[in-house]
């Protein structure tokens, strides 16, 4: 069933317009307002190429059957070659009953199919919502990450949908099952900056050598701890020991070489025996110990210098690889330790009799070596990166995307799981639809087979002729065309073809009667019981009340079957400009108190058609109000004349396209004609301007006379039935 018709920029619909639809739809509008534009588009649907759209719960499966001028032309172009209408013969009750059963079964399955289609649409809508949700989430993460890793998102900055379905999906499939080689985000960002942004020129780095521990032997440590003194067996040794000035004496000997036998300190002469005693005190053994300590000092000093040289590269690499300064702190401790120990050596050499113990730096050296092991591991990694640079850069990229998708993993998996459930449900529905569709086709084939056995155009011929007779059309009838099987022709009572001799009323009536039976039949042998949407566009073109009354009865029959869900009539659209016909056809919905009805008015303003839809009938109520006002007691002549003018203009000009003054006045004679002319002139002048050229004295045109002339207008135009209908409640 059609829920809404959308029309834009077609004919007089210059602006977007909507026709809100229900099961029964009454559309009222004057000639040329745009009614036929809609009925024409419905007739062409779904092949219309205009800006015309039908909105409904599902696809329009019903056959749209339109009665309009085009229908009359296409079916009655030749009065002796009209397509026959096939209906089911009523003689074979069993077959007819079986067809009805099958039709109900088909309708049940179609209803089931509709529920499947509805469920499928719900699943598809849900899939669309979930898809848009994940697209939005993916886009938010793209904005979050892309600024820091712009190179990795090259080619991704398009629409959200394009990003998700192309860039996102392809990379997700590629990286989702991989393990990240760089799991630390800060390191990953650093490596990206180094290798992708800074174009870092890299070279292989040599490993740093470990520092050997500086371990003195026991004898070496003993010498440093020992008080190195002269020969105790010399006489002078006691004096030197008592004075504790062996270093002073030793230093004095160096000066004695210059002063010969004169003491460099007291300037006294020194005899040979004293010199000999002093020489014996600082014997070879003493000198050897001093030489040993001095050599030990030089070696220690050289080792410390070499060790401290290694620190420079280690400090630099530690900062680069780890961002820490532990090696720098160790270097400071070891440097200070070397400095203190070397000072001790110098003191020992200057004062050999003093004992010294060197500070043990091995703990610091061991700690340093452990750090060097870690740095060397990084050096190996770095060298491996350089050796396989392209591979490593790909590792950076893959590690990024693994982390990137891992952060979204819960959302992606939730969407994928929901998608699997939806696709499974959709697949299940498709399978059910296929089975059900096969069942429906089987039923249709059986109906077709049964219809072929009993379908005929004869019953419609009989019914059309019966209706012609019932409604007093005695001058012509329908018969089967013997020259062309399956067609009808219209003939006079003597059997001759009518050709173009039918009056407008006769022609319109037979055309609509044909359409009426086509609603319940088909121009083909099959398709009699297909669901239909009925569209009737202005079936009354003249003001022949007899025809109007009969057509109203036929239309009401169609409406009643639609309301009661009979005869496969699923929806009805009635377009009309005839107010009397409009009142007649809406009566059935009032009698049955049916609510699924829409009432629309099409108005043309400044050349633009506009549609106004309501749930209540406002068309006839406003027209009725004019009649109700006219019967009020104590109404003034001026007010009454104005109301009568509006009624006549609306009914005859708008509905019947009558030229009131020329066509109606000519039907009167004598004084009545003169009075009526004055009546119309007064109505026009009384409502528009003041005049002084009355052909009839207005004082004599009393309210009573005016009302009589008003009634006479309807009588002479054969619209007395309408007048009677509108005045039946008058006292």
TrEMBL record:
Keyword Coiled coil among record annotations: yes
InterPro entries assigned: CR006_AAA, P-loop_NTPase
Highest taxon above the source species: Bacteria
Gene3D superfamilies xrefs: P-loop containing nucleotide triphosphate hydrolases
Annotated Protein CR006 P-loop domain residues: 18-715
GO biological process, one term: DNA synthesis involved in DNA repair
Coiled-coil region: 358-399, 426-453
Transmembrane segments: none
Entry keywords, A to Z: Coiled coil
Keyword match Protein transport: no
Xref: Pfam families: AAA_13
PANTHER family in alphabetical order: ATP-DEPENDENT ENDONUCLEASE, OLD FAMILY-RELATED, DNA REPLICATION AND REPAIR PROTEIN RECF
Protein name per UniProt: Protein CR006 P-loop domain-containing protein
